[in-house]
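Can't attach files on this board, so I'm pasting raw text. These are the components:
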Amino acid sequence: MSFPLTTFILSIMTSSTPLLLAASGELVVEKSGVLNLGLEGMMLVGAVVGFAVTYHTGSALLGAFCGALAGMLLASVFAVLTLSLLANQVATGLALTIFGTGLSALAGSSYVGLAGPPIPILDVPVLSALPVIGPIVFQQNGFVYASFALLGAIAWFLYRSHAGLILRAVGDSHEAAHAIGYNVIGIRYLAVAFGGAMAGLAGADLSIGYNTNWAENMTAGRGWIALALVVFSTWRPFWLVVGAYLFGGIMYASLYVQGTGLAIPSQFVASLPYLATIAVLVAISRDRARIRLNAPACLGLSFRAAG
Amino acid sequence: MKRRTFNKLLGAGLVAGAAPAIIGRAHAAGPLGVGFIYVGPIGDLGWNYQHDLSRKELEKHYGDKIKTTYVENVPEGPDAERVLADLASKGNSLIFATSFGYMNPTIKVAQKFPKVHFEHATGYKRAANVATYNIRFYESRYVEGIISGMMSKTGKVGYICSVPIPEVVMGLNAYIIGMRTINPKATIRMVWINSWYDPGKEGDAAKALFDQGCDIVAQHTDSTSPLQVAQQRGLLGFGEASDMYNAAPKAQLTSPVNNWAPYYIERTKAVMDGTWKSGDVWGGFKSGMMQMAPYKNMPDNVAAAAKAAQDGIASGAIDIYKGPIKDQSGAIKVAAGSTLDDKAISGMNWLAEGVEGQIPK
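---
Top answer:
Structure tokens for the assembled complex are below.
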């Protein structure tokens, strides 16, 4: 049997999309100087809400929207705790993950084992009939298109818009940004809320696009991988795509290779994405200048306006 | 249900979600305390769901004569030991540890609580107060093999495997033995995900297997994802541990259904009567511990053949591991005229001819 290139690539794209969505949101959050480790929790809440809404209304679009909204709500809790009440961001983020895991399990207990409607494929007529390229570029579910559109918008916002410049300034030196009159806390609130919405959307993708069911803890660590991807990309949007697809690709390929019966230990293949991260992180760490250039200097630091 | 919900809320609220909440409290005086410890969420609709269903049946059977307590989502390791000791010290007289990896923690805790009766599912270590029990899951795999042999057009089926232990290996072999009685050229492709429950990975594994030309996927993992992938692609599959028909009504052919209730009821009675003894029970179709979900999405003659295989195994007319059986290299593993005893089955570590790939070492 010949190698099914098209379905292979399609499968990789669907498994990479949730990573890309969640990581893009976190990129904006971290660029504003906030470290939110609660991705996993926000994704789970987005997944359960997205699934529930899609299940009842039959509309994946509405489900995705509500999933994003739920992620945003949970992120707002984080924002209040860390930005207004100045709680430690690392500890609060971890707590958010645990809280989101429990909350989603509670909310989702009656949805376990139900099958959601299949997600509509947005087919671009004529073009989707092209060999190989057609199905890959013009025949995907909405999440795949959205992940690229949103990342493009984020890249433009961060590096080509005035608002993005302010956001980056807040992330690099909140004291300076505050001194010239920007509302540091307000901007960070918006960034954290946006990141939550993206995480919620990523979760909704997991429960209505990638899978069509809800299961407790279904993210299975993807939130953590998305967090690592932001560092992996040294906070640059283009490299985020590379990272997300590298991870998604290796995750899928590791299963694919096993099915072919090649004599490679499955544990080794399963560890490849993580080995790849370590290798790239080491390579990146050697280039200090690049990290200093792109990493938000105030990442994870609380800000309290003087006076 | 209410109590569990409340506890989850409490757990979430106190940010104690990482530590499994203990539901209910049993007392030494009054009703007999029966504890259960589960490796995953009871909402998995597979392995743990089925144990909990049997627990509820046990509770219904004895009413207020017993008080059951369960702890879900307990990782196999030090946590299990802590939870088991906690259950034992809270007045439970009978404790069911329902996952293979609880074996050593159970033995260890049982030494500290000699008066408490422990029951460990799928293990092989016993003690004066530790019994073991299991279901002959492989019997259901043989039936799945018969169905696949008749239903698969490509003669190639995918099998999503959890962790490399004999329980999984004997299922793979029973499957291919059954399938090859219908289609002697049939093959199985495996994907090991090294986990019992990972919906995302299970779904991906199903996609990978279908991408390689398999038209039926079986699973020895607990989520409904593979069946849903099958349904999306218009292909077929088997559930696991529990009837997963509702998750994929157009794709599920059948599903092995684990029925622990008769055993739980019997053992609880033994504790009540003071006749409990350590031992080892391995039930299958015959005792009703292994059941099959209704045969769907297949022609009547296939369903009839499946039913016949099921009855044949129950009556003893079909001996699944009867020779000659060749291993992957083609060497005779079970000679013609002989068969495997329970000891050989429960230690199985070789793959029969027709299974492609290796067991992860």
